[in-house]
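Slide 14.
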Amino acid sequence: MFKVSHNRALLSLEISTRTPLSIRAGDIGLEPGSSDMVCIRTRHAEHGATVFIPGSSLRGVIRSTAEAALRGALGPAAACDPADQRRNCGSLPPPKGEPDGASIHRASCLACRLFGSTTLKARCSVRDLFPFPYTASPLSDEQRKNFERANSVEVRPGVFIGRLEGSVRHGPFEQEMVPAGVRFFGDIALENYQFWQLGLLLSAIDELDAGFSQLGSGKSKGLGVVQARVVSLLHQQRAKQGGPKGVAALVSKQDIDRYGLKPDGDFPNVADNHEQRGFLEQFSVSANHIEEWKSVALRSLAQLVAGAK
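Slide 15: predicted structure.
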């Protein structure tokens, strides 16, 4: 199915730290006097060294949250365990002879249909988040202050208490963390997606925003509570298809059956800007109309759950 572009979307995401955030680097600090556990950093070509939230970290939280919701609503078969190398979707033998994309997609669990597996390309791609918008150049005064706050990391001392003896077994050690009140910006891309898949993604983001899911390490210590919201959405699809649609409304009945797609209809035909760009129609949706798209996506997810029971 990915050989043909039917529809795609780009969700612009803003994450604000409500409590300090610790996403650790894979090694200890190299500078003399640095903390034992340092925040992961990268070097931006324009803005220099900075802390950031790796897309893989956010993706892992979103996927595990979505998997737990699917299993709770539909049972264990709705979402395989990616860590189970013997029974996850990537390890299952291809159904009925030679493998092809349609049969692999049809045999995959609902979670893998969105997030992918070792045998199925993901429809969802989560990109790195930085303490400044991608397009900000140069940074405004407020964006510069946010960038500086993010990189003015806190350092907290800690110890490990032995459970039997009740005394310090390891430590003291120091841990870096991004302070509360810092904003990060990034994108989530979807390709050839269905309504229920957008609904599953948005429901996982809602759980992160509500504090039921947390980012990074130290979750049991209260770290990693964030506010997460989609600030804009860009939807593209083949031109002259009417209003914005899910992929099942854009492919043939034969492909719906081959891939085992769920029913799709139309999204609300509300957008701040609608234009044709080459072979594609583009719908730009700001925060004013995202809730209308979100309600349709969540309703489609609820219908999927109700129809599977």
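Speaker note: Strands lie at 7-17, 41-44, 48-51, 124-126, 154-161, 168-177, 183-191, 226-238, 273-277, 280-286.
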